[in-house]
Amino acid sequence: MKSYRIALMAFVALALSACSKKAEVVCTVAEAPESEFIVKLLDVNTYNVLDTVKSNASGVFRYSLEIEKNQPEFVYLFDGEKQIAALLLEAGEKAVVVADRDGNYSVSGSEGSAKLKEVNDRFASFMANMRKAVDASDSKAASAEYVRYYRECVKYVVSNPYSLTVIPVLFQQINEDSPVFAQPTDALYFRNVCDSLKTRYPDSKYVKSLDNEATRRSKLLALNTNFNAAGETGFPDLNIADVNGNKVALSSVDAKVIMLYFWTAADAEQKIINVESLLPLYKEFHPRGFEIYSVCVDIDKAEWVTCVKNQQLPWINVNDGLGATSRALALYNVVALPSTFLIADGELTGISATSEAEFRREISRLLK
């Protein structure tokens, strides 16, 4: 009976530990015995000082803070004005940090903190390369470095839509007037990431702030949309390369009704839409004069080509490889994926269909 009570107590202790709202930081700073360090909390766009702590004779200090479930916090450790570690802490985590006073550190016990360190290290490397190019007055090298890093950031954002570490990536600044994500069409990334993070962290102040920025950028994108580019057609024309590298103009498509479809092959759900929704529509209406002009907005064209070929998609599939900077997105004010437009008899229609059934009815009506 005694052993049963001990086991029960151990189970209760473990359960309470798992439900704990506290996160703990154990930090060892090299050559910093009995020194003072500052713990700060990021409050959207400002730092709030939580406490000042003192290390022991071995340079070790501990700090714990309460964190609500599903509301991770960005916490920063400072040595005076110098930041020595950046952490993304969740309730119940114990982050073990080994740092020096120059800002070099390692972290374990916190997955978010480890990913945040990788994000910050990549940005620091990018900024160092940019400074070298600027100091050498090499604008070509600076431009190439920016494009390289921007694409790297896009890949990270697309690959980690449910990680809060994407937020600092989206808000990185080269200087006060030059954000890394500076294109109007970057609004697409802000909105898609925000919608993904809302499902996991609906109460996070960081996600709410991202939502505000995504809305602001979406409005700016709408203002920048240039529908005057339609020219002699009743819709903005596109001329993008297909899977074989041959450019296909939207205006050259010979069909009574054209579905203009924007999507990404990086999303498994959108791949399913190809097979379960678009393919049945195409097979039913193509013989009557219906065509699909499918614009993939992925930078990774290899993944897109593989998807098109594996799914044997019979319609027109194009991709310019520019991702969120694609002119096609701006022309059609696309701020979320997937997005669909219908062109009937050379004119862009103003339909508001949102489901496969509604599109089916509308296509059938337009083909009469």
Structure overview:
- 40% of the residues lie in helices and 25% in strands.
- The protein has 368 residues and is of the alpha+beta class.
- Strand 16 and strand 17 form a beta hairpin.
- The chain is elongated, with a radius of gyration of 26 Å.
- About 4% of the residues have low confidence.
Set down the secondary structure blueprint:
Layout: H1 2-18, E1 22-29, E2 36-43, E3 46-54, E4 60-66, E5 73-79, E6 82-89, E7 94-99, E8 105-108, H2 111-135, H3 139-159, H4 166-170, E9 173-175, E10 178-179, H5 187-200, H6 205-224, E11 239-241, E12 247-249, E13 257-263, H7 268-285, E14 290-296, H8 301-311, E15 316-318, H9 327-331, E16 339-344, E17 347-348, H10 356-366
Parallel strand pairs: 1-7, 13-14, 14-15
Antiparallel strand pairs: 1-4, 2-3, 2-5, 5-6, 7-8, 9-10, 11-12, 13-16, 16-17
Helix pairs in contact: 2-3, 5-6, 7-10
List keywords for this structure.
368 residues; five-stranded mixed sheet; 10 helices
Could you give a short description of this structure?
The protein is α+β, with helices and mostly antiparallel strands and 368 residues long. Helix content is 40%, strand content 25%.
Q: What is the mean pLDDT?
A: 88
Per DSSP, what share of the residues sits in E-state strands of 2 or more residues?
25-35%
Category from helices, strands and their pairing: alpha+beta
Shape: elongated
Share of residues in helices: 25-40%
> How can the largest sheet be summarized?
5 strands, mixed
Order of helices and strands: HEEEEEEEEHHHEEHHEEEHEHEHEEH
The helix tally amounts to: 10
**Strands in their spatial order, largest beta sheet:** 15-14-13-16-17
The tally of beta strands, per DSSP, is 17
Low-confidence parts: 8-18, 226-230
- Tell me the span between the first and last alpha carbons: 81 Å
